[in-house]
Amino acid sequence: KLTIHDNIINELDAEQREAVINSSGKVIVIAGPGSGKTKVITYKIAHLLLNGIKPSEILLVTFTRAAAKEMIERAQKVAGKNLDGMMAGTFHHVCNALLRKYGWVMGIKPNFTILDEEDATDLMKLARSRFVTSKQMGKALPTHNELHSLYSYMVNTMQTPYEVLLKKARRWINVVDIIEKIFQEYILEKEKQNVLDYDDLLLKMLRLLEEHPDIRERISSQFRWVLVDEFQDTNILQLRIVELLSQVHGNLFVVADDAQSIYSFRGARFENVSELMKDARIFKIQTNYRSADKIVDLVNAMIPRSAVPKRLRAVRSSVQKPIVVNTYDHFDEAHFVTQRIIEHVENGASYSDIAVIYRAHSHSLELQIELAKKNIPFKILSGLRFTETAHAKDVIAFLKILENPYETISWMRILKLLDNVGNVRAEKIISEITSTEDPIGTFLNVDVKSENIKSLKNVLTESLGKSPKEQIRTFYENFYKYVLEVHYQDFRDREEDIERLIEMASFYETTEALLSELIVSDARGITIENDEDSGKVTLTTVHQAKGLEWKVVFVIGVNPGDFPHFLALKDNSLDEEERLFYVAITRAKDVLYITHSVLSRGNYISYDKIERDFVKDIPPHLAEFWRVR
Ligand code: ATP
Ligand code: MG
């Protein structure tokens, strides 16, 4: 029988306490935004620790790496115990770690490298090119980008190409045979190169668990508890994976809000929630601790349709109703938001208390300019991630070659940094070296006169067997610095990034560990740690704002066509847009602004008219309406 500790009792309400203390077996905590779902998981971990469960017996799955880190820190404080040895992170992290250890039983070499989206798309391009025999055929087929998203959707929803095309893209049904062949080629190429893409991490993990009962037994005996946050955004693969991982002990503890499911375009299915509810114990929490009551009133009026209806009770009172602001165009909107941020800060808020949330990254551009003009520091959670910038990718490609010399995409990237090497030459070198037992050794023996190939050979030689930090330093100082200076005007900023990368690398003993951290991550997880980030306004898409909260929140660009997004019409996914809007407004603690303008982007870019207007859905008595023109 588990005992209860004071520090846990005192900080939870009765409903939350039940969910933390009296829950074993298959459990789902289902509750609205800001009700403490994440807190319940965190305290559950502390509770388990205090009752003698070892960190290594717990598996925590979160939506971002950063979320896992925060929860770990909090749980350690509450329990007064160390959590070293607990496996925690996103599904992709967890699967990556387990596949490195057990993947060999299904022929996966432990030094496999991972293709990010861009690399995977490049590989799809290669696969596609092998089947395009005429211009006409090129036109009849989806582009490599389209192929990659179809492929990814197919894997994540466990469907056949035909099924996916039937539902998503009928116009290509007549070329389904070729599409299948391209996918086959893509899969073969991955095997040949000893690489996995993101989707493989889930797919192979599931196969491993399904097809190897001994391994399944072994892994799932280790995890006495499997805990999952943001369960409403899991896909079918992930549902099966956690069910199998918790098979031996049967303790699967998940928290969810089906009204906040916003990733169906990537194959997430909120049906997972109702499916699990069939044979799980259900806990409900109904108090909202995050938002002031006037905000909760509006939130309650905007709850999307969902399987489990939830009304929230507020505990914090306020005087200020949510403010709906109408401006003339999005330049005025940016101006208004900036002005208000200045006022809030003058009245005592710090920049980090404030966030601006939008539907699409491009909707933030005017605001970025305006904020920069006024010298307001901001950070962006959406947009290009650090590891997607060209210079970071170059460094990563170098490390990947050292780790897995069969990965041609990385060789390509590195060889093309050399001035006198083009596509044809690079391809020739690559096919020559990757058909041998020792690609790096073969490369070192390639007979060349050109100086820069020689210098690449030198840095490769020097890096073999070194720590990841030394590897990056060698590559950078003896080779890459010169490339940067020639190719980029802003090379100083980029150099600074690489210095920080080197600093970060010093925390990792192996190249593989560093690469896993860098690649199997998410936008929030891997903004290379920067202390200055703490004093900044946050700019973010709704998708990236999930689970987070700020004192002051601006939801901008709430114009039909922008938010709800015009593409939703095509996909018939207005429901998802509703849920997105719901997620956006529920991030606010004290003050919520919703802004829209007379001229929307639709007046400049032509797209299909969308009728749905969220501002019109707002009951007039629940908000203040301002006009700023
Ligand atoms: P979301 O659906 O947005 O992920 P959530 O249900 O996970 O929200 P949390 O982020 O865990 O909610 O909690 C929201 C806020 O309420 C946090 O600031 C948390 O510290 C606070 N909170 C939760 N429970 C309590 C409580 N019992 N007493 C005081 N504050 C609480
Ligand atoms: Mg949460």
UniProtKB/TrEMBL annotation:
The keyword Electron transport does not apply. InterPro entries: DExx_box_DNA_helicase_dom_sf, DNA_helicase_UvrD-like_C, DNA_helicase_UvrD/REP, P-loop_NTPase, UvrD-like_ATP-bd. Keywords: ATP-binding, Helicase, Hydrolase, Isomerase, Nucleotide-binding. CDD domains: DEXQc_UvrD. This is DNA 3'-5' helicase. Its EC number is 5.6.2.4. It catalyses: ATP + H2O = ADP + phosphate + H(+); Couples ATP hydrolysis with the unwinding of duplex DNA by translocating in the 3'-5' direction. Residues 10-292 form the UvrD-like helicase ATP-binding domain.
